[in-house]
């Protein structure tokens, strides 16, 4: 399948440009969109990349429109790459029945093993296809220097993708991540449908399970969690991840933020801290 890459939007911001692209994804078997913020410095030298993975019900546009991350990205000379959150347009029966599963931005950044959902391979898309597409089409990006971050379901994706690919990413951070999905309703619903009943397969996409396999992490993992987040007690479970990190002495900073909820107001408040976290790891 030819990529058919085309630019579908461009807006100047903080002297750089938000650009949106459309292409045919061989991994997912459908047309996909993604957004890039190019800092002004990318016109003169290659910019390292911060991948941002968004949450349930989101597209590639939510972060670009709402986070305000471009100010810090412009200052530090880092490109923001934001993929969509699930395959689109496949017309699978039941794909849009609920907000927390299927085509409504609920790809969960895994590779589905169940036949019905075989196109839901967002893990391969984010880790393999998208970086390859970027390196082949955007010489102004240095995809060999990359970090990853995300929110909620995207925080889950960022943590698990980082832990499974330490050679590809310099650092990771997350806002209100689904940190232990095998033990929360969102994760159990998604994993049952995408992965079946094989609990060992579930653990391969659970950051709390994955962290126990590592005892040599060097970069600190940064997590911000709003204390007024309605999903904090039952869906997100950052305390489980924190306990698992302590057992293997994994470097982790969890910041509980009083009064903050699960929204992009929360993300916009602390996004500059996260970009600074990645800038340090990328040695900018």
TrEMBL record:
One of its GO terms (biological process) is formaldehyde catabolic process. It catalyses: S-formylglutathione + H2O = formate + glutathione + H(+). Its EC number is 3.1.2.12. It is found in: Cytoplasm. It is an enzyme of class 3 (hydrolase). Keywords: Cytoplasm, Hydrolase, Serine esterase. The active site is at residues 152, 229, 262. One of its GO terms (molecular function) is S-formylglutathione hydrolase activity. Its main location: cytoplasm. One of its GO terms (cellular component) is cytoplasm. PANTHER family: S-FORMYLGLUTATHIONE HYDROLASE. Serine hydrolase involved in the detoxification of formaldehyde. Belongs to the esterase D family. This is S-formylglutathione hydrolase. It comes from Brassica campestris (Field mustard). The lineage of its organism: Eukaryota, Viridiplantae, Streptophyta, Embryophyta, Tracheophyta.
